[in-house]
Amino acid sequence: MFGNFWTDFASLFEVFFVGTVAGVIEDTIDFTLSTGIPEVSNALIVRSDGYAKVPLVPDWWVDWETEEAAHVTNTYFALGVKGLMFDKAFGEQEPAVAIPDMPFHSDVHTDKF
Length: 113
Fold this sequence. Notes:
The chain folds into two domains: 48 residues; 65 residues, no CATH class. The radius of gyration is 25 Å and the shape is elongated. The chain contains one helix and five strands, in the order H-E-E-E-E-E. The chain is of the alpha+beta class. Helix content is 40%, strand content 19%. The chain starts with a helix and ends in a 26-residue tail after the last strand.
């Protein structure tokens, strides 16, 4: 009456517990990916006001903007960012030449970043 009896009895409830726990985990992941991460990301972007400090370089900043929303598919994430790097001691200075457009995604070049 020990071992096998209790194992068989407990296995009757296994489907319920495993299904419930797996469902809660899936719901939590779905909520985090669809709601939590976008809210935190948007808050950080708003707080930055379009400026980002260049790491390890004193007084260097990037004034950046995105002209459209990110492109997201199952195989890539593309975000078109137009940025101007500048030294705060000199302020922002627009370049004298036209800056070429960069493509969002190229199947020809497999460079990742």
